[in-house]
Specification:
about 160 residues; 7 helices; single chain; globular; alpha+beta
Length: about 160
């Protein structure tokens, strides 16, 4: 069952939605503010997964998915270019994450840059996240940030689509 991630710009928060279908029949509603204008964003799993399929492969009959963004297309293309060994290699993951941040125009904070550099040197991503996580959250905005101004926060819930 696919999990899709959507950004609610009103809440500046990313939500995960579980779908019983590969192509959802309805649009999600923000669990927090009720907005129906959510924007689909590349999911962390889709970006870091080693599966070598494209969005076109996943759609019945192929063809592009309506409403896909250029960034989403780039993220899916980057993920499809990765091999299984790349998905386990912190160096390859750091290169892809840095490239995705640059492609999206996301500001690379000092802590994020340090994490990328240390992953590129082969350090364990989980240990780095534990060590640098608080600094990353501080630089990118806390979970309670609302509205424009910082990087979107992630909601830990899983909602039905």
């Amino acid at each position: 069952m696919p999990i899709f991630e959507y950004l609610c710009r009103a809440c500046n928060r990313i939500y995960s939605f579980l779908s019983l279908r590969a192509t959802p029949e309805r649009e999600p509603v923000c669990p927090r503010c009720g907005s129906t204008e959510l924007e689909r964003v590349p999911s962390t799993f889709a970006v870091t997964g080693a599966r070598k399929t494209t969005r076109d492969d996943a759609r019945p009959g192929g063809g592009p998915e309506p409403g896909g963004s250029d960034l989403e297309d780039k993220a899916l293309r980057m993920a499809s270019e990765m091999s299984e060994s790349d998905a386990e290699d912190p160096r390859a993951m750091a290169r892809m994450m840095r490239r995705l941040a640059q492609e999206s125009g996301e500001r690379i904070t000092p802590a994020m840059d340090e994490m990328f550099r240390r992953m590129e040197a082969g350090e364990d991503p989980e240990a780095l996240e534990e060590e640098l996580g608080p600094r990353l959250e501080e630089e990118m905005g806390s979970e309670d940030d609302e509205g424009p101004g910082g990087a979107p926060s992630r909601d830990d819930g899983l909602y039905s689509l």
